[in-house]
Amino acid sequence: MNSKMKVTVVTVTYGNRFTFLKEVIDSSLSQLVDEIIIVSNGSDEYSINQIRNLVAVNTSIKLIDLKENTGSANGFYQGLNEAYNTGAEFIWILDDDNKPKANALSELKLFWQSNTNLKKNNTALLSYRLDRELYKKAIQSKDPFKMLGSQNSFLGFNILDKFSQKETTPLDTSINYGEVSVAPYGGLFFHRKLIDTIGLPDINYYLYGDDYDYSYRISKNKGKIYLVLSSVLEDLEKSFHLKSSQKRLLSNRFIKTDSKNKIFYAVRNGIKFEQNFVDNKVVYILNAIIYLVLTFVILLFNYKHFWKLKYVLKGVMASIK
């Protein structure tokens, strides 16, 4: 039944990540995808040569070589634009380290075909990434906005959360699919007609937050994103901005990276996106002040990382221009 659904994988890679990418490609091909579009965002010489070798021996693999790293927003813009313009029917976005587990694609196809009420122009499915357990909790607590934190948070911080009672909503572990309000690029699956509704990623985001901005357009257009737990992706590398399950005193996510761009764009774009959920400016500004003071203290006590404060503040200033 699901063999009639033609699927194009769109993935973006960069640097020296061919080892990850090869696992993703091999797994995708084993699940009988019809086409793979690889956008090279400044891959190193070894990686780009290896990708070209794959293209040479497999006509279902296409390469878009951007020569230099233009950011994830433009990378996925180019890949999705190519898929759309060359007639892709269904598109499955995978990061270059999102390895599909067995039957991940067939589970998405089965879900789509089993739910005949899904509208092609405003519906997306989402594979479950094992390191994004918060998404699973969101559907099992029936809270589509759970991954976004509370209203008026500043970069995920809200002082009011410290004084409120902890969530007591029980999780219904029998739930194996459900609605989420936003999604990462990796795992997003949709019909080409969705692009007619929400367009392509905003390249001005450059890096970080562009996936949330893009997927949230579905929700804002009264569409639906359904997380399907039976479609599983394995993340071969963990993202720096994911919160650790281990709480450490005087630590935050900026300790985990030395990339000036990652810090700057994570802050700038995070602030830009969260304006969708601010309804009390006083509380929001209070959260911002406390968060920045805490960040100053944390980086001061981890002094070798103190230089990062400059890029945090640059991100804040850029977000309000």
Automatic annotation (TrEMBL):
The keyword Lipoprotein does not apply. Keywords: Membrane, Transferase, Transmembrane, Transmembrane helix. It comes from the Bacteria. Gene3D superfamilies: Spore Coat Polysaccharide Biosynthesis Protein SpsA, Chain A. Residues 8-114 form the Glycosyltransferase 2-like domain. It holds the Pfam family Glycos_transf_2. The chain crosses the membrane at residues 282-301. GO terms for molecular function: transferase activity. This is Glycosyltransferase (GT2). It comes from Formosa agariphila (strain DSM 15362 / KCTC 12365 / LMG 23005 / KMM 3901 / M-2Alg 35-1). The lineage of its organism: Bacteria, Pseudomonadati, Bacteroidota, Flavobacteriia, Flavobacteriales.
